[in-house]
């Protein structure tokens, strides 16, 4: 089966979050399952671009409204990622150092999608399936069906995966001029609540729609940033498929970033060595349990409750706990977390920003991972943590609900219901009881490390989904 993934991110080319991790792993494991998976994304000015070898695969010229542009498709020469990787270069529009964060992001990603569609019309043998990811590619299913210039693509099946429905790519109707000429009678398939909504358009026009966990698909019918009725109406073509993790990248036996490698049989010794490095670096006491948070410091991750939670937990647990934070986001939350270093320096530290190597060492050296998320479509951090024998402490939502079972239900994690300070403090108290029973702690570490969250099962579910659209 020939599968083309279209995405704004892909690790290690360019990554801002979980979308990049998924896009970097899913096609690789589909290729290993003997399918021909390919991926196309914008060409950003990144280290990966500079360090690898490329060849020009295609050149074209098209337009987005009154903006006419040349584009170039370049291909990575060596299949370094385990699949064919294509980048779209639009001079002055996509070739920038950051993925997102520019005033003209909407125009950038519309032009990217147009270039992909224009390129695909020249393919002699079309892909069996085009798999689009998040709103940055959400107009493609519509353009395949209803843009006059892309009529050769009308019968190519599209699958659309929602990694986070909070971000939908809203555009006012005056931006409709950016979209290539289309059947005006189909304009309603672009719209939701009087604006162009690429994510809603994809849900309406894609042949199948997936989310990155079953629980998140269910939640979208009740809480999807205004699209609740749409998901209820389109539920017949929607399915939740839980993400996997790349068990080659995330493997404590071989992880190139770790101070010491380990398996489930040597978990305590290995985690201790990595914890010693962390505690030495951040001036923390190795004998105290280490709680970590890794991720974006934003509302949906409930990052705003972290400063008060940390202060309260340190006080209520008599300074017998340590916390280490790695992340960036809301400037006010960042400032509060920085200020906290001055108040409880013996029990807390933080790094504002992102550091791939440090994140791996934190998963390996920590005892507990905090994930009080308000919204978590799938969540990969909890699966990384379990892989490294670090107990996840999660709010029951989305993929966290699908992957973590509470220790009170014979599971391996600590679960709670609300993103509130005292609930998270109470969860820390439960964690302390586990930490103070080394025999139980060791058994739970070994148990969670044996859980299979690899991509193989996920890949099979996607292949079955693709086959179902090919039979239509």
Distance between the termini: 16 Å
Biggest beta sheet summary? 9 strands, mixed
Give me the side-by-side strand order of the main sheet. 3-4-5-2-1-6-7-10-11
CATH superfamily (homologous) name of the largest domain: Glycogen Phosphorylase B
Helix-strand category: alpha/beta
Q: Could you report the average pLDDT, rounded to the nearest whole number?
A: 96
Helix content: 25-40%
Number of domains: 2
Radius of gyration: 23 Å
Uncertain runs are none
| CATH architecture label name of the largest domain | 3-Layer(aba) Sandwich
How many helices does DSSP assign?
16
- The number of E-state strands comes to 17
Strand content: 15-25%
Question: Which class of the largest domain in CATH terms?
Answer: Alpha Beta
Form type: elongated
Any idea of the CATH topology of the largest domain?
Rossmann fold
Catalytic activity: [(1->4)-alpha-D-glucosyl](n) + ADP-alpha-D-glucose = [(1->4)-alpha-D-glucosyl](n+1) + ADP + H(+)
Function: Synthesizes alpha-1,4-glucan chains using ADP-glucose.
GO biological process, one term: glycogen biosynthetic process
Protein name: Glycogen synthase
What does this molecule look like?
This protein has 472 residues and is α/β, with parallel strands linked by helices. It folds into two domains: 2-244 and 456-470, 3-Layer(aba) Sandwich (Rossmann fold); 264-452, Rossmann fold (3-Layer(aba) Sandwich), CATH 3.40.50.2000. It is elongated and about 70 Å long. Helix content is 36%, strand content 20%. The longest helix is centred in the first third of the chain and has 16 residues, at 105-120. Helix 4 crosses helix 5 (198-205) and helix 8 crosses helix 11. ADP-alpha-D-glucose binds at residue 15.
